[in-house]
Amino acid sequence: MDAESILSDHAGTLLFVNALHGTKTGEQLLRVLGGYVQFNATFGSGVAHLAGEIGVRTDLFRDSDDPVAVLADRSVEVAAVFFTAIDEFGDRISLARCTHCSLVQATIKGVAEYLALACSEGGRGPALRRCHYKGY
Q: Among 13, 101, 110, 120, which residue carries the largest CB count within 10 Å?
């Protein structure tokens, strides 16, 4: 089973798609994008936190076949599975610190500029200020 088939039927995906289809104006589009961003904003940090919590629990993840306590610890190996959140905090190859958050903020600002909704107040006009979660 591939990820696309799983995600295409996921309730959250369907809600987001329906919200996008329901937009009639540029400002509505910004609100939907803002809600999506706000909803997802904490997941990268949450996964990184989870990895840290697992990594320090040396009592939980042990190799029962290894009698030497310090060698039996597998907590960091288990934590590494969850540490995919490193992608949230920037590209490990480039020196630039482009997080997912900064990229999506630039996307929202670019959409607002394209739709001429951010023209006032230094690119942070009323439409952008209202670009926050109000529910789908």
A: 101
